Amino acid sequence: METCYIRLYMKGIEKPFIFEVSEAEQNKFRNHLDGVGFFVFETVNGFFVAVNLEGVQAFNLLWEPALISASAPGKADDRWPDAEIAVFLRNRERPYATNASEPKEIYVVLETLTEGFVDDGEDLFVGFQDEDGEEVYFNTQQTLLIRVSALVYRQGEALIGDEGEDDDDDDDDDEDLF
């Protein structure tokens, strides 16, 4: 299988972001170019990335370039913190980094970003509880990119799926996530 990369040049960030992805994820990105709002893709090194397409100035879709592999996130790029969640905001070189208290909230944040609610102005701010139980909110119009651990994302997805199955059994349980 071919090694593929997505290199993103973002508004207000000097250095481009480089993500190693599967060929299928690269094709999904290519096919979503007419979209607006956020696009979520999975990297090969265990992260989900939500990118605000309005913040992308330019991008490259690359395959097996010799110089890129040494500088892909998780290798030589020192901007990535050792945290489950990293949020890059406009005009800030370093991300806001934290860990999640509830994986399902992180899953809901990424799903909210990709479902277009943000474009309708419904969710100017999205948020979740961090590892200390404190609330964290981000202005979606100022958010360029969110990187989330795939483990946290999948745990949240499984928890939401389990709740959906429980809802089929008990129609009285209409609990909101936030």
Task: Walk me through what this model shows.
The protein is an alpha+beta fold and about 180 residues long. It has one domain. Helix content is about 25%, strand content about 30%. The strands form 3 sheets. A 5-stranded antiparallel β-sheet has the order 3-4-10-6-7. Helix 3 crosses helix 4 (about 150-170). The chain starts with a strand and ends in a 9-residue tail after the last helix.
In short:
This protein is of the alpha+beta class and 178 residues long. 26% of the residues lie in helices and 31% in strands.
Itemize the secondary structure elements and their pairings:
Layout (H helix, E strand, L loop, with lengths): L3 E7 L6 E5 L1 H9 L6 E5 L4 E6 L3 E8 L2 H6 L13 E5 L6 E3 L4 H12 L10 E5 L5 E5 L3 E7 H20 L9
Antiparallel strand pairs: 1-2, 1-5, 3-4, 4-10, 6-7, 6-10, 8-9
Helix pairs in contact: 3-4
Unreliable sequence segments: 69-76, 173-178
| Separation, N- and C-terminal Cα atoms | 41 Å
Strand pairing plus helix content: what structural class?
A: alpha+beta
Strand content: 25-35%
What descriptive keywords fit this protein?
single chain, 178 residues, alpha+beta, five-stranded antiparallel β-sheet, 26% helix
